[in-house]
Amino acid sequence: MSINVLLVDDEAIDLEWMRRRVLTSGLNITVVGTASSGFNALKIMEEVQVDIILSDIRMPIMTGTEFARKAKALSPKTKIVFISGHEDFSYAKEAIEINASGYLLKPVQDKDLYEMLRTLCTNMEQEREQDRSFTEALSLVNKELLLRWFDEASPEPAEPHLRSLLNPLLQKGAAAAVVEIDDLEWKMRDWSEEDTRSITRQIAEVIKAFAEDAKLGIWIAVHHTRFVILSSLPQDSFLSLLEELIRKVADSSPCTVTVGVGQYAAEEAGLHGSYQQAQAALSAKWLLGKNRLIRDTIQSSPRGTPGGQIEQTVDQLLEAIIQYDLVAIDDHLMVLFTKDLPGAGRKEVYELIIRITSKLHADLQQQNENLYELLQWESHQPDILFQFETIHDILSWMRRRFFELSELLYVKRQRQKRKLIDEIMRYVEENLEKKITLKEVAAHFDFTPNYLGYLFKEEYGLPFSEYVNERKTNRVSELLSDPTLKIYEIAERMGYKNIIYFNRQFKQITGMTPGEYRKKHKI
Q: Which residues contact 59 (CB under 8 A, 6 or more apart)?
């Protein structure tokens, strides 16, 4: 931050000389004004912050020392350096009495001027740093006391030093907002502690810088994941800026933030209530989702009590999983988590998940399946469930896992069915020269004829009887290719006792009789 210097001299030439020399000093200095009299200099000081004054000590009407006394009364921290061509002890004595910071004799050498300015600038920077440290320390203490007051369930009136912070806000009406970083626990569970701290510091800096640049109001860090903003901006502007903050964090970091906002208030008690409302709104993130602005006007639905309806829905969910009906799975999960448990807290949701998974596991065990082995859960209650911050996160996770379970079961069934069909087809091939019926094959594989017939057609695309006739016809064609075999011998060999039926059956499939087939193929 630049140091502001005011130059005062009744001699125009000396004043211009001083201005040029100061500007070429190479120091971080700004000449905020030049004045030919003490009166003009005081007017400049009323309008601009002045850090250092270089003033001639002998001036008409108002002497340099008289001006210095008035300047010190106006700005006690301003440093004053006198410049004079008179080597008179009386002037030096006056300078000492008013606590001047230096005394230079005309003609002033550049090195003497620059050394004096360099010393004063260094002292000014040190004083500014001390002031900043004190102000920040005082601010931190006040902010901590303010948070304690906000966290009281039934607060007493704010202490006077806190009231001095709140009153400027409350003059126009103020509201509280609570900002929370989302998903830190599960998104960063595989990160190092150093990386996690770095990310949270980065997000905190984004929030702080945005709050300061947008002049949102008082900014307080509650801890590394949660922040409070007290603002007296107009409501629409405040809400719009908070929405912009949410977008900015999402665009600049791997995490998002959710913001809860309370109502506007014009008195201390109302602002305390606004803070409580902002916290309550933020807690609704569990139900409403994250990376968004949540107003205090959101009303939670009354909590439901898990009952018999849940059991029925869970049964329907299991059936949908077994049938590989992903749409129905999603529908039943939505019913369980949004209809059967309206406004539920974490405890109710976790209890529901345990009930769902336990029932699914028990029902699947009856089909010789193990839910936890299929999904590769390390325990019956995955730790990840306790890291989610919203019911939407849990619902999304459950949906993915049950989709996965349904697909695993489907693929497993398909493999089992394919294996069974392959065994049936192999059995048919081995027994083509015998009479083969669906009833016989079903009994051999320990199925009912109806189920086996349905399964075979679903998997192969043909009714079992048509498949058998097709395979028998192919075998007959192979035998007809042997000219040493008579047609009636082939019919008997293939289990046909009636040669006419044999001919008709062959023609029905190939479009020609066995004899015509041999003629066509010149056998």
A: 8, 9, 10, 37, 38, 67
Looking at the chain, the number of H-run helices and the number of E-run strands are 22, 10
Out of 46-60, 383-397, 431-445, least confident range:
383-397
Q: Count Cβ neighbours within 10 Å for each residue of 422-454 and write b for 16 or more, e otherwise.
A: eebeeebeeebeeebebeebbeeeebeeeebbe
Q: Which of 229, 244, 144 is nearest to 179 (CA)?
A: 229
Q: What is the pLDDT of residue 7?
A: 93
- The confidence score (pLDDT) of residue 135 equals 44
Cβ count near 316 (within 10 Å): 16
| Pure H helices in 431-512 | 438-444, 449-460, 464-480, 487-493, 499-510
Note the pLDDT of residue 345: 63
Joined tokens for residue 453: 């017939």
Q: Letter for the amino acid at 4? A: N
DSSP alpha helix (H) spans, 260-390: 268-283, 285-288, 308-322, 326-334, 346-365, 371-374
In degrees and rounded to multiples of 5, residue 482 shows phi and psi of -95, 105
- The mean pLDDT of 102-115, rounded to a whole number, is 86
Q: Is 176 helix (H, G, I), strand (E, B) or coil?
A: strand
